[in-house]
Amino acid sequence: MKICISVIGLEKWFGGDFAGLAELVQAADRMGVDQISAVDHLVLGEDHSAYPYGPFPGTVETPWIEPFVQLATFASVTQRIRLATGIVIAPLRPAPLLAKQIATLDLLSHGRTEIGLGVGWHKAEYDACGVPWDSRFEVLEEQVEACKALWSGAPAAYRGKHISFDGLHAIPLPPRKASTPVWFGIAPLPRNIERIARLGDGWLPMERDPAKLAGPIEKLRHAFAAAGRDPATLQVRASYEIVRGETRRPDLEATLAATPDYAAAGVTTMRIEPSVFCRRREDFELFLERVLAVRDKA
Q1: Domains of the chain (ranges, CATH numbers)
Q2: pTM across the whole model
Q3: Do residues 188 and 204 lie in contact, with contact meaning Cβ atoms separated by under 8 Å?
Q4: What is the pLDDT of residues 267-284, one digit of tens each?
């Protein structure tokens, strides 16, 4: 089991100064946290009623830092922690730009990039970027194929319904070229399971109940095998289901107690949000010590 730390909301410990997050990421890197994740919204409209996972965890005033810029900052102050997203809304970026952003981050971090891609839920972002909402899954799939073509070498060519090019040079290439890990944050529907098995290295489920994760993970393993890939290489990063005590405060020990259940379901990395459990900066490293102790026993 590996541990991923989310940086969501931690800027509040620094009076809203996002530059302070570098200090936290350095501590996480030093203490042995496996992965750090950033999130993505380019813009937000005022209607969040389409958010499919309960109340939207934010407002129009919530700051959303561009994830590639943020992760590049983290790369410059760390040595080993892996840099991830959960998720980048891929269709909002042209495929060559997405390929360049991922390749650059992977180059600057010496191969520590594990990018999660998805399509999001907010149609207003697509409208603002002039990207057709109804084609978002097709565009996502072609983007990953196009990125892999650009990362494989130059000149690169790709021809799809939405993305086409020939004779392009996207230099520098990422250090791992077309094998740069790509994780998908999409629902485990049959078509998406096939997409992940054919194009991806991991899955980022929104489901937090470990009992409900085992079935889709097993289907993904079968899909990997059907695609001629080793099912043991499938990576799955899930988020802890937060357990609250009698006072409704988050209970860290009760939350972490489910770690063996996630491992049994096939989850390989657990994501946790320090902002949920820590009231102040001084609590952060004690929090990490406890989380990492549980990881090491899993």
Answers
A1: 34-185 (3.20.20.30)
A2: 0.95
A3: no
A4: 999 999 999 999 999 999
